[in-house]
Design goal:
The protein is an alpha+beta fold. It has helices spanning about 10-20, 35-40, 50-60, 65-70, 75-80, 85-100, 110, 120-130, 140-150, 155-170, 175-190, 205-210, 320, 330-340; strands at about 225-240, 240-245, 255-260, 260-265, 285-290, 295-305, 315. Strand 1 (about 225-240) and strand 2 (about 240-245) form a beta hairpin. About 35% of the residues are buried.
Length: about 350
Amino acid sequence: MQTFGVGAPFSQELLGWYRRVRRDLPWRRSRDPYSVWVSEVMLQQTQVATAIPYFERWMERFPTIETLAAAADGDALALWQGLGYYRRCRFLLTGARYVSANGLPSDVASWRAVPGVGPYTAGAIASIAQGLPAPVVDGNVERVFARMKGRRATGPALNKAAWQWAAEVLDRREPGEWNQALMELGATVCRPHNPDCPVCPVKNWCYAFQTGVQAELPVPIAGRKPVFLQHACWVLYCDGRFGIRQVGPDQWWPDMWEFPRIAYEAGTEPVPPFEGLSNVWIEDLGLIRHSVTHHRIALRVLFARLESQVPGLRWESVAALATFPMPAPQRKALKLAVHHLGLYD
């Protein structure tokens, strides 16, 4: 059995493997820092196959930092909807405006100064787009490290050790290729479940492979207990239009648009957050289940056809609503109402 140290053969095997088998992804066809930046933000907590069409539409609509910086929040959020974790979109917007005003960063430290850019994103942009010797650690690299070195640490301790290792093994001649190779290895071979160890180019340096403990590493972190909540939303329809409101700044999905929604206690009936429904027939269209972080939410969809519009709401047609950024469960609520009305029949 070989030692687990990392030397030139390790680098050669990994880089050679990456050049032979790397996936043809749209963001790999350019070294434009903005393109790399957008892709890295989209890929946070999103599968590659899901991100590709969003990336292509985004780059067509906002091809440069300047075009994004000049965009309205609602336009960007509308294009992002469906990807989830909308905070990423807001960080990208804020960061683009910062860079547009202050100039393109030229090193890791200046990328870290951009609002919303953390150590991983800064390292990825600096190394891939600018050729700077900066390590990166995402979930894939952390997993590769845990198995390569046999580390059973979890949480921040594992992450810190992975960053130290990534800096030590970094190929400073080709840092962008090297970082992408490590991430590609974790994404396609050293997978969380059922890693494909026989095809791994660096299995001879891997502690987990040599000792047969791949399934034990990295050691999983105990998850947070889910919190179960009940929400209700009222889909109000009047003269061909639906009533919506903008989400407040201190709620989930700030600045997006939704049907009026409240949280209510189990065993009680939800009370609408407005007047005017006392003599209106309310129809229950069912439940939509969704999650926000560790919250498990059952959204009850209530429908009402009105004779006059409720004040304080914005009233828009189905066609117009397609241009409004709405959270995924609200889109599902709209779909229920549209089919209930037979508008697509």
